[in-house]
Design a protein that fits this description.
Pfam families: ABC_tran
Domain ABC transporter: 3-242
Distance between the termini: 38 Å
Number of strands: 11
Keywords: ATP-binding, Nucleotide-binding, Transport
Order of helices and strands: EEEHEEHEHHHEHEEEEH
Protein name: ABC transporter ATP-binding protein
Radius of gyration: 19 Å
GO molecular function: ATP binding
């Protein structure tokens, strides 16, 4: 396993009481696999991703990244861990407007102290992997929404992480572009051998994942094969249409 969340509990203050965002969640993600996490708004999906990214420390439980437990790490140590082991694809690409697609990636490697030559080579390979080799010298305003999201994903892979965390990558895309992005994430997961967690509200592309887990009121169901989940969802829809639900 490359990402392990064990018995994670996370609470937030809510007036005079406390709100449980994550309730004793356990999730194991092997390298080379994509687990989709779905659930309604406010169910705890974003909190789960933030804890997995070590951006928020849980009240209880253990996050283990590539065999390294993060409990007790200092802020500096967690920053180093994220830099080398965790790639994060945020919902909005937030690309720097003055940089080309290639430079968006190269700056990540330069922050890590890699040589410019190696950074250029890695950026070229990743842009080719996401189908943007011919767009390396274009700036964000010259790219479509789907292309900007592809740069966003390539940037998250720049430092060769073992864990890839993806937050709602299709929220600003139409159905066709959204499907292409999800398929690309699944392909890169296997090619780059990352342990990938994809948080999404869009259930139409779940077959690209290896398994699907659902979050409700801070509790996570055991991951099920994506194909099974898709068939179950289709059966539910038919039941409602037939009045048998």
């Amino acid at each position: 396993m490359s990402l392990n969340l064990t018995d994670i509990t996370l609470t937030y203050p809510d007036g005079d009481s406390w709100l449980t965002a994550l309730d004793r969640i356990t999730l194991d993600v092997p390298r080379g696999s994509l687990i989709a996490v779905v659930g309604p708004s406010g169910s705890g999906k974003s909190s789960l991703l933030a804890v997995a990214a070590t951006l928020i420390a849980p009240d209880a439980g253990t996050v283990t990244v590539d065999g390294t437990p993060t409990t007790g790490m200092t802020r500096r140590e967690l920053t180093e861990l994220r830099r080398h082991k965790i790639g994060i694809v945020f919902q909005q690409p937030n690309l720097l407007p003055s940089l080309t697609a290639a430079e968006q990636l190269q700056v990540m490697a330069q922050i890590d102290g890699r040589s410019p030559k190696k950074a250029r080579g890695r950026a070229t390979d990743l842009l080719d992997a996401v189908g943007l080799a011919d767009h390396a010298h274009r700036r964000p305003h010259q790219l479509s929404g789907g292309q900007r999201q592809r740069v966003n994903i390539a940037r998250a892979l720049m430092n060769d992480p073992t864990v890839l965390l993806v937050d709602e990558p299709t929220s600003a895309l139409d159905h066709e572009r959204g499907a292409a992005v999800i398929e690309m994430i699944a392909s890169l997961t296997r090619r780059q051998a990352t342990a990938t967690v994809l948080v999404t509200h869009d259930r139409t592309h779940l077959t690209a994942a290896d398994s699907v887990a659902e979050v409700h009121d801070g509790r996570l169901s055991l991951p099920k094969p994506a194909a099974w989940t898709q068939r179950s969802g289709a059966a539910d829809e038919r039941g409602r249409a037939d009045g048998t639900d």
